[in-house]
Design a protein that fits this description.
Largest sheet: 5 strands, mixed
Structural class: alpha+beta
Oligomer: single chain
Strand content: 15-25%
Number of strands: 13
Helix content: 25-40%
Radius of gyration: 21 Å
Shape: globular
Order of helices and strands: HEHHEEHHEHHEEHHHEEEHEEEHE
Number of helices: 12
């Protein structure tokens, strides 16, 4: 959706885009604003309150917002490596019994991280660390952050509950995720797929055997997979300027960063470090920040490559659009750096 903004319900957009990185609370909103026409913050907040979208720890053990009906598949996929480590590290525990006990405990009321930490540390062998008991519980149970978590301005410590939907089998979960990933980001290598999900390539083996794909080769001869009959725009397609969110899907969807970032700026690790980035002609060339200083909204752009005058003009126009979206009531948008 970075070629043309589409008019979609944000929940449907989440299905098509795969879960959006939500480690920074406002990132999913900015990601959707880059891709959807007419999108407003309250649309996603309403979906979160209605539990049509949920926020949880998913790929690469980081927070994401996803369509609620597809959450079980992503949770099942993401937890497989952690579950294997859990079984190995806690062979003395009956993990099925522990899971049932914790599920009953969560049914009583929503729980905060401090409560989870204290409760889980009662089990023999659970590490006495800040995060260890939390990940123990999140691996065994599909824990989601409860509203108002995920809201644009919410800064409160979240409370957690168990998502009620049944989990698909690991193979079914990987199949659902694979189809969504390829529809959004194919053609892609097996390494790309695994890096995006944060799981070993072997966890997709059954899914790859099930899903009908077509094959391509990149410039280095690496096999790239895609779903059949999907559009492949020609290389001459002009791509608009887009201001991307922190850890935007487009920056992390492929292990090969050359797809979106020139080699000479990859050492800056803009996508991995969580910078908000700017693409021109489909590649990252700058980073950006915003602030509210009284009435004006300020968009500060830092270019990391030489830019043509026309590219700077396009970047400035898109920055002004973004500023008006960020603060609709502001009368002015100041753009610096272009």
């Amino acid at each position: 959706m970075l070629l043309d903004r589409q008019r979609l319900d944000p929940v449907e957009a989440l299905r098509r885009l795969t879960p959006l990185q939500g480690q920074e609370p406002r990132a999913p909103y900015i990601a959707l604003a880059a891709r959807l026409a007419g999108f407003t913050r309250d649309q996603l907040e309403v979906a979160l309150h209605a539990r049509k979208a949920v926020k949880s720890t998913l790929m690469r053990t980081t927070l994401h917002i996803t369509a609620a009906d597809e959450y079980p598949a992503y949770h099942q996929l993401a937890r497989q490596p952690r579950l294997r480590r859990l079984h190995k590290a806690h062979a003395q525990l009956d993990l099925a019994q522990v899971t049932a006990e914790l599920e009953g405990w969560f049914e009583a009321k929503a729980r905060a991280n401090d409560e989870i930490r204290e409760r889980v540390q009662r089990y023999d062998g659970v590490p006495d660390t800040d995060y260890g008991p939390i990940m123990f519980a999140r691996t065994l149970l599909p824990l989601v952050q409860l509203p108002p978590a995920g809201a644009w301005d919410d800064r409160r410590r979240p409370r957690f509950g168990v998502d009620p939907r049944p989990l698909p089998s690991p193979a079914d979960a990987a199949t659902i995720a694979l189809k969504r990933y390829l529809a959004a980001f194919g053609p892609a290598s097996r390494r790309d797929i695994a890096a995006w999900a944060g799981v070993p390539q072997a966890d997709f083996a059954q899914a790859l055997a099930r899903v009908s794909t077509v094959c391509f080769r990149d410039e280095k001869g690496v096999e790239l997979l895609d779903l059949p009959n999907l559009p492949l725009p020609p290389a001459s397609t002009r791509m608009p300027v887009r201001f991307l969110s922190r850890w935007d899907q487009a920056t992390l969807a492929h292990a090969d960063r050359d797809r979106i970032m020139a080699p000479e700026i990859q050492a800056l690790k803009l996508g991995l470090a969580g910078d908000q980035t700017v693409t021109v002609d489909g590649r990252i060339v700058a980073s950006w920040l915003w602030r509210r200083a009284g009435d004006p909204v300020e968009i500060e752009i830092t270019a990391h490559l030489e830019l043509a005058h026309k590219a700077r003009d396009r970047m400035g126009a898109e920055a002004r659009r973004l500023g008006r979206w960020l603060v609709p009531e502001a009368r002015k948008v100041h753009v610096t750096g272009v």
